[in-house]
Specification:
Oligomer: single chain
Bound molecules: flavin-adenine dinucleotide
Structural class: alpha+beta
CATH topology of the largest domain: Butyryl-CoA Dehydrogenase, subunit A, domain 3
Number of domains: 3
CATH class of the largest domain: Mainly Alpha
CATH architecture of the largest domain: Up-down Bundle
Largest sheet: 4 strands, antiparallel
Number of helices: 14
CATH superfamily of the largest domain: Butyryl-CoA Dehydrogenase, subunit A, domain 3
Distance between the termini: 38 Å
Shape: globular
Length: 407
């Protein structure tokens, strides 16, 4: 269903926003410092989210298909306003679920996406494994191979994935592997690795600078054998796609289906960054109006007030870019200027700018863990790195607006 872009998302979405804000304020924010220090997956919070319906396939599907087009950004902004680490621990599963939705058959979607979430009494996780030690921004150079064993109708996967959110602790992993290295990114295919599959194991778990309540680890694939039915989209579709790609190579065309998928998913990450920025801005505004020096609130100094004016302006601009791109994705508008990448670039940079300013406005207190801006400042740093670094977003935008193969 298509919709007209509106700054009023409607009564239903406003109710969802208020409901999620309550969850973020009452459940997530009070737990944020503890789970940041523990650097562990906050299972009790995910379970609470599952009981309330915040962690469920139905909820994300409902937000995704909301006719306003901005259901997902509204949900992301509120959850990540609560805390980015716990927020990612709650929504990390959607990375795997979206990969199944984008590439799977109806039967595969119906089989695997519910298993990624489980039930409120038996919560499960999903993960999406694309990045590798030698293939981050240059994802086309990935080395993980999937080889077809025609006699058994099985795929055999070998390789090492890294930086995987929920890697090794997820029940269902979606793994991108190369089935034809000569074709680069067009020779990639996505596979579901079902729970308990032999050969998949967790490698190193990373100790991180921020979003520390979210589990990030390597995933090792050592002779992982999967039934043919685990190839997302099926073999026939893959063979057709590979044949077209081989034709494309000869005609020197570049496929852009993967880029279109990124354009649609990046605004959701931008919305997370808006949530982090808004949270830090609110703390800073409150502090600046109550902290007194030289006999007046520090906000009465133009130098302080103007900083807050810039923070608020950038946050609102970032949200507008995110909402525009989300609305475009929901309404199948062509991303002629890489508007999805634009929204993620600007929101990520805004989160870093705002949290840095917020720390400064809190003076010595901003430098301590007594106040949340120190954590928000650390958390914000991920938003210029994952889902494509800021440099890669600029590259994508520059290529889109110029039509040139900018490197
Ligand atoms: C906490 C966390 C969670 C993550 N979760 C996942 C996940 O769930 N699944 C997954 O698959 N991946 C995940 N990632 C991986 C993430 O997407 C990559 O880290 C990111 O794409 C960057 O890749 P890289 O780290 O290899 O950096 P590199 O690609 O090595 O980049 C290093 C630097 O070089 C710059 N650079 C590289 N190429 C160019 C260029 N052409 N022009 C200009 N500058 C360039 C980059 O911008 C960057 O500043 C996660 C990462 C982190 C840190």
């Amino acid at each position: 269903m298509s919709s007209t872009f509106s700054l009023d998302p409607g009564a239903d979405q406003l109710a969802v926003r208020d409901w999620l804000h309550g969850f973020a304020a009452d459940v997530v924010r009070p737990a944020a410092a503890e789970w940041d220090e523990r650097e562990e997956t906050p299972w009790p919070i995910i379970q609470e989210a599952a009981k309330l319906g915040v962690y469920s396939l139905e909820f994300y599907a409902q937000q995704y298909f909301d006719p306003s087009g901005v259901g997902i950004p509204i949900a992301m902004e509120e959850l990540f306003w609560g805390d980015a680490g716990i927020g990612l621990a709650i929504v990390g599963t959607t990375l795997g679920a979206v990969a199944v939705l984008a590439n799977g058959t109806d039967e595969q979607i119906g089989t695997w996406t519910p298993q990624m979430f489980g039930t409120p009494d038996d919560v499960k996780l999903g993960a999406f494994c694309a990045s590798e030690p030698d293939a981050g921004s240059d994802v086309a150079s990935m080395r993980t191979r999937a080889v077809y064993d025609g006699a058994k109708d099985e795929w055999v996967l070998n390789g090492t994935k890294t930086w995987v959110t929920n890697g090794g602790i997820a029940d269902v992993h979606v793994v991108v592997a190369s089935v034809d290295p000569e074709l680069g990114a067009r020779g990639h295919a996505s596979f579901v690795v079902p729970p308990g599959t032999p050969g998949l194991s967790q490698g190193q778990k990373f100790k991180k600078h921020g979003i520390r309540a979210s589990h990030t680890a390597e995933v090792v694939l050592d002779g992982v054998r999967l039934p043919g039915s685990c190839l997302l989209g099926g073999k026939e579709k893959l063979d057709e796609r590979l044949a077209r790609a081989r034709e494309g190579v000869r005609r020197s065309g570049r496929g852009n289906a993967a880029m279109a998928t990124f354009e649609a998913s990046r605004p959701a990450v931008g919305a997370q960054a808006v949530g982090v920025a808004r949270a830090a801005y609110e703390v800073a505004l409150d502090y600046a109006t109550t902290r007194e020096q030289f006999g007046r609130a520090i906000i009465e100094n133009q130098g302080v007030a103007f900083q807050l004016a810039d923070m608020k302006t950038r946050i609102d601009a970032a949200r507008l870019l995110v909402w525009r791109a989300s609305w475009m994705a929901a309404n199948n508008q062509p991303f002629t200027a890489a508007e999805g990448s634009m929204s993620k670039l600007y929101a990520g940079e805004t989160a870093r700018f705002v949290t840095t300013q917020a720390m400064q406005l809190l003076g010595g207190n901003g430098f301590t863990r007594e106040y949340p801006v120190e954590r928000m400042h650390r958390d914000s740093a991920i938003y210029t790195v994952f889902e494509g670094t800021s440099e890669i977003q600029r590259l994508v935008i520059a290529r889109a607006i110029s039509g040139k193969p900018i490197r």
